[in-house]
């Protein structure tokens, strides 16, 4: 299969998480949020239904497992396709995607504690599978994609570059004392991944405005 030319020279950053399954920040000063509500609901519903089956390997349990897998696969393919289409619209030629270790570990290398429900989601979601699907769709469109480190992204403001080891995200917002402002935390993370803040050679672009994001259900 012949690989088409890249849609353009813009860049994008993709951050996977819990509150929003994916956040995407573009060098065109746009950003998209993709909630994981349906995936969350399925993650609670199907295990309970399967647990209520008389036999864990019986016909009904097998049917529920298959239906759950089908719905999750459908979600992943549709989301990956939509993200790549949006990248084409924004003329993105390269996507930076946060390394999956950053989803499961904090900046100190310890397992992230997302709370009781969050931890259930984290272990149930197939981040690896989605990343592979996203990579395939991107390559079909001629868009390059690479994994970058998420180290310190939760402690650094992508606009001013200030790092605060005591930084806390509250109500989904990342507060920046330097700018006396607050940004959506997931978009802030996606923008830092786009800039690849841990690679000084590639961190030469101006940051996107975090005020211009939209939520895509």
What's the quick description here?
The protein is built from 6 helices and 8 strands, in the order βββααβαααβββαβ.
Structure in words:
In the C-terminal section; belongs to the transposase 35 family. Keywords: DNA recombination, DNA-binding, Transposition. Pfam families: Cas12f1-like_TNB, OrfB_IS605. With 217 residues, the chain is of the alpha/beta class. It has a domain at 10-148: Nucleotidyltransferase, domain 5, CATH 3.30.420. The protein is globular. Strands 5-4-1-2-3-8 form a six-stranded mixed β-sheet. Strands 6-7 form a two-stranded antiparallel ribbon. Helix 1 (37-51) runs antiparallel to helix 2 (59-89) and helix 2 packs across helix 5 (127-140). The two termini are 32 Å apart. It contains six helices and eight strands. The protein is 39% helix and 19% strand. It has helices at 37-51, 59-89, 101-104, 115-124, 127-140, 185-195, and strands at residues 10-16, 20-26, 31-35, 92-98, 144-148, 173-176, 181-184, 213-215. The model is unreliable at 200-208 (pLDDT under 50).
Topology:
Layout: E1 10-16, E2 20-26, E3 31-35, H1 37-51, H2 59-89, E4 92-98, H3 101-104, H4 115-124, H5 127-140, E5 144-148, E6 173-176, E7 181-184, H6 185-195, E8 213-215
Parallel strand pairs: 1-4, 3-8, 4-5
Antiparallel strand pairs: 1-2, 2-3, 6-7
Helix pairs in contact: 1-2, 2-5
Family: In the C-terminal section; belongs to the transposase 35 family.
Protein name: Transposase, IS605 OrfB family, central region
GO molecular function: DNA binding
């Amino acid at each position: 299969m012949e690989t088409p030319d890249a849609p353009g020279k813009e860049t994008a950053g993709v951050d996977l998480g819990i509150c929003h399954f994916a956040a995407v920040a573009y060098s065109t000063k746009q950003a998209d949020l993709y909630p994981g509500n349906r995936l969350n609901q399925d993650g609670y519903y199907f295990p309970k239904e399967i647990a209520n089956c008389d036999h864990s390997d019986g016909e009904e349990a097998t049917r529920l497992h298959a239906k759950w897998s089908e719905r999750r696969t459908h979600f992943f393919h549709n989301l990956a396709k939509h993200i790549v289409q949006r990248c084409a619209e924004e003329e993105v030629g390269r996507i930076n995607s946060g390394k999956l270790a950053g989803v499961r570990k904090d900046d100190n290398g310890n397992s992230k504690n997302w709370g009781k429900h969050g931890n259930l989601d984290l272990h149930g979601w197939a981040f690896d599978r989605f990343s592979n699907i996203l990579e395939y769709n991107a390559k079909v469109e001629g868009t390059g994609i690479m994994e970058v480190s998420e180290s310190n992204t939760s402690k650094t403001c992508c606009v001013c570059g200030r790092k605060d080891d005591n930084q806390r995200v509250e109500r989904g917002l990342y507060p920046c004392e330097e700018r006396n402002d607050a940004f959506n935390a997931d978009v802030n993370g996606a923008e830092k991944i786009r800039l690849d803040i841990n690679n000084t050679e590639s961190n030469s672009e101006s940051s996107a405005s975090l005020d211009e994001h939209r939520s895509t259900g």
